[in-house]
Give the backbone structure.
Amino acid sequence: MISCIDPFDVSRLLSLSPMRTLEGTSSVVKRWSVFVGLTLAVLAACGSLRAMPRAEKHEGRQRIERLEDAWRNAIVHGNIAAMDGLLADDYMAITPTGILQSKDQALAALRSGTTKFASLEISDRKIRLYGTTALVTSRAEVKGSGPEGDMSGSYRYTRVYVRDPHGVWKIVSFEASRIREPGERRASKAD
């Protein structure tokens, strides 16, 4: 049964639309609650079904480790073909100075010698897998130069890999930040 809670002629409230009670709608509310509960249960079950099995995670981590080593070797030795195979077509990097760099720009800098690494030592590598995405964080001790000049120093970086429908992992994103020693100041344009 639907009844008016606020009929205009009785309460004298400034309302032209009467409010209705929920009397007689308890079966609708119960059915809706059951529907929402079942939907949430199905979604939770689907989420657990998509969880990556332990063996697959281990294999994925090993694959990303090998790709990270291949990236390091390609960048240190200036191997353009290897780097081209590692980077996705829509790859985007953010350099330590905040400059955006596309795949074509990264390859051109490597090809021209504008970016050159004398050494690159990686430590504290962490790999996290999220389905078809892998997130890698590491520390890098760099000796080399880039478009902005000497870039020797300590860095933290994040690299993101995505696995395509054919199972091929590609680097889609990279960002590096310089680790500054206590008291070390940033270089300014005036320096």
User: Anything to note?
Assistant: The chain has a mean pLDDT of 79. Residues 54-178 form a domain with the Nuclear Transport Factor 2; Chain: A, fold (CATH 3.10.450.50). DSSP finds five helices and seven strands in the chain. The first helix runs from residue 8 to 11.
